[in-house]
């Protein structure tokens, strides 16, 4: 693996000034680059435009005979109304014009508007302002817009106006067809701050719409998921649009871990950090708290890491000639005391951008990628159809990828060694009359388990008679070659589907003189080794395949490795996967009923055992609740005898109904599936995130499975998600069916379709 | 209209015996017909089969080493399991065989099974029993099956097992592809009764699954919507299958009106009435209570009226030779005392089927169809695309249908008469210099409003100068004819789109000698009459059309008839409409985003002002809460002047956000839309079911409008449905957007897509 794979990608860092007044020239962009910034924000319009809109509003209010209050008193335009039209932008209204620096600029729309205003006049003017700004930004060729999120009303709550905000954003997406719209949101609503920001238009609003201000006194509790809730309405209204993303403002005090996790699952593409979010280290340099550092690290490992925008941390050096008030060299080196000491003892340098330097240093400090991260680069949250190994012959490269796993085959070797040791210690009879334990590797692929079985035999000193069965004729060529080159011809190779194999052949002495073919008999197998598991344990038909060879296993002593396996489930929020499934379903109607193999990354577990008790400090990360759906154990002695001309597979049907308590509200987009398997006794493999560290850390062979829902379900606070799942078979194929219900107390509040993957079923 | 239209259709009545033992021969069917029954039920299997299944179960339990209880203790088959297989049906297991009487038989599947059992063994045997019965019924060609509903568990509650029940029914629908499956349900769960029925298999169940029995002691309150809830899960799991319908058991004590309303909205195709549901009148004859009669009447007015099955009310006369224990002549005539007296004084007759006679009599007593019922025969719950009158020329028959309305034109005449009277009384100047009030009928069609305006003028003695504008050249031919034949040439006809009409022409004296065309000027209009409203008021672009002629109306005195109109909304449960929209969307992706004109019938209003106080006796019918979305008033003097080369239509944009409290749980499939209009002062038309009786009873011109939801939303008890709706325009067309949210307390529990009819928008 190359070193480049290990390198953590560079942070993309920009600079934002709330009151940027100068036009941004290509020279300024050049200066910013020289200071190590990657980009700059740019207000789309000027204060001149703000003033002009206020005067349009004032003069309209002056001409009104009487307020056009609804008869019903409800919000909205329900009667004949006429709003003033803001005249088109003129040259004083904007400094922006198309130039070569456009790709390094993020446009910022005006924050003095309020699309959610209960006053329809203010809401309509705000809509006009935003749409004018979007249209002009699109004309100039800006690729990125930062749009202040919906304003709070009703004493710090998101109001009904969010629906209207969302509808305007939908129009904006159509007006700027090449623009990525970043909705600028706080992690958690902060009432005090919001009240400060409000009201550039509000003071001019008519008093019948100013009910909000009066209600402010009750000072409500902050709703930790209130901002997320508003975002959910916006992106839902806009149908999970791919150009609608989040710009997240890092607050000084981070919210509880469950809120951080939620944002981690959303498309956060910008991260804004105010000067006030930095703290000072002992030397007075700006640094971020451990909590902030770890949140940034986590977000930076997303498939598309967010860009970072430093807000109001001082001017671009050389642009206005002013010095940074922060004083001496910044915090960049604050956490490397030895280096910092070296620098501070050499006070010749003055760092004009200490916040930026700190962020660049933070980038350097990112831990290198783990094995699974390196392995999964580019695969995070990428949907793959599961393998059909029974009907499709795998290619060599696919085997090679699997064989790279640093854990899986090691664990298999341990399991075989232990089984052989036990066999010998218990003095069990062997199926081969010569006393060797008969080991069969079925579905051997290119043979990694053969090598391990031979090693286990050598290591334990227990002799084996090894049989290797593979149906893929291409892989079989390699097996023959390996037998010559690696296995010293010790291996008995059988080119066959394991289900039609008749067992190890035992030649008899010729019994007549006419030279007839030597008759053969078949012995049983003592230890049957297979690696047929899929991401959801049984989804690649391990049960059906092993049932097909179980009759060859010794009826009392026979051992199957793996001995058993279980499928595990948990409901998740996965907005990116949902959007991808929806876009696939345009061309493939079966897309939302297909289970996908996917390296789950930007997801949030809805059901957790989190201690919502925030008194623990620091609050612990929520632990997902992942439950067992069902189990298969081998050898299965309960297989019905073949009858009625066909072997029934009904004994491999399973169903389950699992209840998942969900402490915090969210949206359920689907189910994450994992597996655990007991290879032999205490040798286990697990992809279940709760147990994988303990059972088989660093295993990379399997990504989880994802069962989507056609339509996301809202999950309220303190509710239950109930999953009903079936493993079905019609004796020709196997498929899954799944259905999700949401309950609050005893009341059903949501229910999904019964989804079925029968069209994408796994053929037997 | 023919008398046949007035006739109430015949009831279809059958007979059911719980313990029917004889095979049903064609002779028995013949006897039943002679007794006036239309059909009979028939058990698919015999008690022999029951006994055989019990012995399969007993011998399996005897062979079990130990109970196969899940490790997790949760319900379902989660581990390797093997269930006994019931051997195929033999001749003693069923009396049913294919014969000519099949079309008069309703098969009944066994009630001693329990598909919901928490014991997976019982659940699996029950599944096998049902599937064997369905397969045999399908083989015999039965068209109808009555399937006992899911059994109660957990102390009289529907259990998690309903999901499994539903899954088996889904298989049954595939196994019997020509069978209608009637799920036999109570209106409300009755705990006592259910406990009696349970347990044919249960006593054999293993004790670890008999937790239910122990929990029974807590004697829970009956959940009035519990049975409906179970039905909702079943039909939802089966994707609103058209062959999955309800057989409803009429209980002795009817549930609250809201529960009755709910069932009225579901596909109730069978109504079963037990002997015990009948009461005895003074003469001892079996009759039904007033409440039962009225519920039956209501259900019988559905598009597909249910069949009625009388259960255990005595044998078919002549089949077993036994007499009905009821004694004398039945209750058939009980409510016609004069007739009854005549009969009882002549006691020669003995009625062997008094319950049947009563039902036949009830049929005779059904009130004749109302005007709107006659008009709507065949249109109940039938989806129609709204008219596009601006871009499509209507056909004569369409006008004719509208002109048949007994109320609408009468009310227009009253409005015009009152407006003319007021004009004269207030001595307003007229636009015609000769003193006649200038009246214009715009969009006159075949001229019904012209006739009414002329009558109003004659009746009030206020002279009018009448102008008639119509764009449809075909209708214009008829207008010319009417002017000759009916209107005595009094009418000035203008063939034009009203939006391009330049107003009444006033000829000037020739002003030169060269014989140039006489120049004309145009006067204003005093009273502008139009009938441009659609089912949702503004949905056929009345606002846009009238805006286009408003400049012709006298600037101070001009009157528009109608003066204003409002659109009204309410969330509804409409399972049939949902199923129809879903089936249309297979071929037309825009189907679930199209507003439909539909005569709403099998629907239930989710938001009501019902007094849930059941102490009132009898409890009053729930009154739906129908709210005003928005209003248009004419003439609209606020229309912006044409500018930028096109007339902006943005003043006709509307939006609203309405909160609907919902006392009882349900499923929201869409929104019902209505309108009200003020023609002039207190002369109003309404299709709003709450106000139509008072404002314009018996008006038939408009069916309601239905805005579907792509995905139904669950509405819990005591929740709120919040509707956000937009009337949008891009200056070329008009469309609607709608979104529904469901809240419990402050918590969002469901949210729909933002639906948009832009693809089916109404062209301007």
UniProtKB/TrEMBL annotation, chains A, B:
InterPro entries: Arg_MeTrfase, Arg_MeTrfase_PRMT5, PRMT5, PRMT5_C, PRMT5_TIM, SAM-dependent_MTases_sf. One of its GO terms (biological process) is lateral cortical node assembly. Residues 564-763 form the PRMT5 oligomerisation domain. PANTHER family: PROTEIN ARGININE N-METHYLTRANSFERASE 5. This is Protein arginine N-methyltransferase. One of its GO terms (molecular function) is protein-arginine N-methyltransferase activity. S-adenosyl-L-methionine binds at residues 399, 408-409, 470, 497-498. The keyword Methyltransferase applies. The active site is at 531 (proton donor/acceptor), 540 (proton donor/acceptor). Residues 36-365 form the PRMT5 TIM barrel domain.
